[in-house]
Amino acid sequence: MLTLLLFAAACFVGYANGANDNFKGVASLFGSRTCNYRAAISWATVTTFAGSIAALFVSQALLKKFSGHGLVPDALTGSPEFILAVALGAGGTVILAALLGFPISTTHGLMGALIGAGLVAAGNQVNLTVLGHAFLLPLLASPLLAMVLGAALYLAFRFARLRLGVTKEMCVCAGVEQQIIPLPQPNGVFAAQSLPAFSVTVDNPSICTQRYTGAVMGVNAGKLLDGLHFLSAGAACFARALNDTPKMVALLLVAGALDIKWGFVAVAAAIAVGGLLNARRVAETMSHKITGMNPGQGFAANLSTALLVTTASFNGLPVSTTHVSVGSLLGMGIVTGQAKWRPVLGVVASWVITLPCAALLAAMTYWVMRA
User: Fold this and answer.
1) What is the predicted pLDDT for the residue at 26?
2) Is residue 209 in a domain?
3) Whole-prediction pTM
4) What residues contact 108, with CB distance under 8 A and at least 6 apart?
């Protein structure tokens, strides 16, 4: 029974993670209109699942770190009540943010839950020194590095594009639309009537889409870019799963009766289902509320995210894919002048309250179970 409860708790965190995080790697595909929502979430699901399975072989450092060893007393890391409180605190916070459309960090949620439950259970025995250099430093530094790298990659690709003679082209949208026109009536009043009217729209990002014209080594530039864009989005999703999955599977280490390999498979499946069922609100935020973008700009931001998160995973650093992805998009948006600061400030505010919210929820859960 205890093993089943721990298993369900870890899968709940995985589901919440998928709902909040799965779309972040492919947000630029949807935001730049390279593909529609269904195609983007399908690609995200496939590549995220592959990254979750690959994590079994390459992310042992993160698996150990998020078991809580070194942060809280070892006796707690083997306590089923403690692990359940951490899972419910983190999972509850992340799924609530997903339902509200805020892209927050599962890493932050787990870290806050570890601290909250740890403070109730062990008081001053929680090692805040480990918290600082092993957890907070990578989480704070990663969005700043992502902003710099995202901006730098975009400028480098833009320079290469101009050198290769690849130029932008903009579609012109022409057609008939219905317009409401007030028409005078015999009694002296005006009545609204819908009449067809010819309209032409040029250079409107919400209707027209920038494409690239020209060739690179004999290949159409637009098609080549779309292919690379899909590959970079898949790489970002793969890298995210590689970094996030061990953090959730670590919750199952206390259940010695469960083969950890099956834990990875179960959490990977939960992440995939969460993304398919509950990713839409976060998708709108990530794709349309951070910055405007065209396919080339989205490709640069995705490549930046994939490089940083993959590097962190191989070095056992618990970075937030959310922070890296938003940082990359924002860095590119600052350079292009398309950053949307008001929604960005709302996203940053949600990051600030993630840790205390998860800590409070986990602390209350642990106190109730112990009482």
Assistant:
1) 92
2) no
3) 0.77
4) 139, 320, 351, 354, 355, 358
Same domain, 186 and 112: no
- Statement to judge: residues 153 and 30 lie in one domain: yes
Assign residue 183 a region: left if phi > 0, alpha if psi is -120 to 50, beta otherwise? beta
Read off the pLDDT of residues 221-274 as tens digits, 9 standing for 90 and up: 678 888 888 998 998 899 888 878 887 887 776 655 567 788 889 999 999 999
- DSSP assignment, residue 125? G
Our count of domains for the chain comes to 2
Dump pLDDT digits (tens) for 30-78: 988 888 999 999 999 999 999 999 888 876 655 555 555 566 776 777 7
Q: Which of 124, 203, 156 is nearest to 304 (CA)?
A: 156
What three-state secondary structure class fits 199? strand
* Secondary structure, 3-state, 53-121: HHHHHHCHHHHHHCCCECCECHHHHCCHHHHHHHHHHHHHHHHHHHHHCCCCCHHHHHHHHHHHHHHHH
304 shares a domain with 190 = no
pLDDT of 203: 46
Collapsed DSSP state (helix, strand, coil) of residue 303: helix
277, 343 contact by CB (below 8 A): no
